[in-house]
Design brief:
It is built from eleven helices and twelve strands. The chain is of the alpha+beta class. It folds into two domains: 257 residues, BirA Bifunctional Protein, domain 2 (2-Layer Sandwich); 26 residues, no CATH class. The strands form three sheets. The chain has a seven-stranded mixed beta sheet with strand order 3-7-8-12-11-10-9. The longest helix has 21 residues. The structure holds adenosine monophosphate and zinc ion (ZN). Zinc ion (ZN) binds next to strand 12.
């Protein structure tokens, strides 16, 4: 039988102490569900400043701004086989389409905190699990320019069902992505350039950031094979910073997709085959890395870091 609930990883030691301090000082506002975490005024201010600083960083990229809602058509998630690779992370929107009698039953069950999910049907929508996902079908609406194109998603809310007590592992968080589409050579070169630029940027904020090869958390036994193949092909890199856990935390990631999204959504260019890649900043994780590294007394941060964030 399928598990109805997963064990929620607990934050202990240095990570637990950091989480408790953030909550006690009002930087984070917990809810009854782990990973569904609100943010107090200091955290919000830091998040917005960091986002503005990233805008400055990417200004010379000539990226086109595109923003999307936090839900996307279910059909698009199905098309990219997300549910085969990451069923444990996906979130799906179900809605009530019944009559008045059924509504009464639903309301009563909900009021009593009983299981009312049987009254719902798929709304044809899923939660967006990565800011870049809605970009690929949008790019397919016209030919990709011969010299490629970069899209900036802005800081978008995304959803991944991985509830945890770790303050860095959220169920809903902001991800800001640059998405590049173009010829295989130009997309490869773009990713290498941005890997170096993003690492230097995070180091310029005083973060002890390092760079490593990585893999996605593919589901199950076949997932292990997919993860090994992703690593062997060096398709994913991360910038890692210690944030109190046993291992450093990924604050930004670079993914090369080869022609995966391009072929699913039919991206074409007069210059030939189209590849895509993306660079994603986990905005909350970057803020948490700053708070862990420099402390929660923001006024006492090194002056060059304050200057970088216009503080
Ligand atoms: P990914 O698409 O998995 O490479 O994620 C892009 C970035 O989002 C990562 O580098 C992290 O900084 C951030 N991220 C991923 N999962 C989470 C999570 N559960 N909570 C907070 N940030 C996350
Ligand atoms: Zn992406």
């Amino acid at each position: 039988m399928a598990a109805s609930a997963r064990d929620v990883p607990q934050a202990t030691g240095e990570q637990g102490a950091f989480r408790d301090k953030l909550v006690a000082e009002g930087l984070l506002v917990p809810s009854r569900v782990p990973g569904v975490t609100g943010q107090g005024p200091v955290f919000v201010d830091l998040r917005q400043r960091l986002d503005a600083r990233i805008s400055k960083l990417v200004a010379d990229e000539g990226a086109i701004a595109m923003e999307f809602p936090p839900v996307e058509p279910r059909h698009d998630m199905e098309s990219v086989d997300y549910l085969s690779s990451f069923p444990q992370l996906a979130g799906s929107v179900f809605a009530f389409l019944g009559d008045e009698a059924e509504a009464l039953e639903l309301g009563e069950q909900a009021h009593a905190h009983q299981d009312w999910s049987g009254h719902l049907q798929s709304a044809g929508l899923v939660m967006v699990p990565a800011a870049c996902h809605p970009v690929y079908p949008a790019l397919a609406r016209q030919p990709v320019p011969a010299d490629g194109i970069t899209i900036d998603t802005g800081a978008a809310w995304v959803f991944r069902h991985e509830p945890s007590d770790d303050p860095c592992r959220l169920v809903a968080f902001h991800m800001r992505e640059l998405v590049r589409a173009g010829s295989p050579e130009s997309v490869g070169a773009w990713r290498d350039t941005w890997r170096d630029r993003a690492l230097a940027f995070l180091q310029s904020l005083g973060l002890p950031a390092a760079f490593d090869e990585a893999n996605d958390p593919f589901f199950g036994r076949t997932g292990k094979v997919l993860a090994r193949s992703q690593r062997a092909q060096k398709l994913k890199f991360e910038v890692l910073v210690p944030v109190g856990g046993d291992n450093p935390t990924a604050v930004a990631s670079f993914n090369a997709h080869s022609d995966h999204f391009a072929s699913v959504f039919g991206l074409v260019s007069e210059a030939g085959p189209v590849h895509t890649a993306c660079l994603g900043f986990g905005i909350e994780r970057c803020v948490l890395a700053l708070l862990f590294t420099h402390g929660t007394d923001v006024g006492g941060w090194p002056s060059d870091v304050l200057a970088e964030l216009s503080l």
